[in-house]
Amino acid sequence: MLRIGHGFDVHAFAEGRRLILGGVDVPCARGLAGHSDADVLAHALMDAVLGAMRAGDIGKLFPDTDPAYEGADSLVLMRRVAELARERGYRILDVDCTVAAQAPKLAPHRGRMRENMAAALGVPVDAVGVKATTTERLGFVGREEGIAAWAVVLLDDGR
Ligand code: MG
Question: How far is the CA of 159 from the centre of ligand 1 (A)?
């Protein structure tokens, strides 16, 4: 049977942080605030996978109260989520993501984001889509207060 999962995440911009999106260190004067590396795109994707597995969310799996996850590389966490999916008999078939950021321009980095996340999930690059959009200067994204990301995933549950 096929299972669908959806993930959503938001992180606020913060001074003195690197901007990590889909495992890519994107050149930017500011990064995102967070306990881990604050990779909002990777977080949305992981929540989509966990959602399709009906296995909670990354907050439950990797609590931000746990010092082990301070500054954590979200792609390492993504590998663990993918392992968990495989252990439970799921196969990740297809993923699509959207990142909403007013700035910086993300289009030049989409290819590497797809490669990084496909490698972390153990799927072909073709199985991971990443799109970037602005919000036409509307809302918190448009005011450059933060970045939002959405992801959907299709899993085969092996049954
Ligand atoms: Mg997050």
Answer: 31
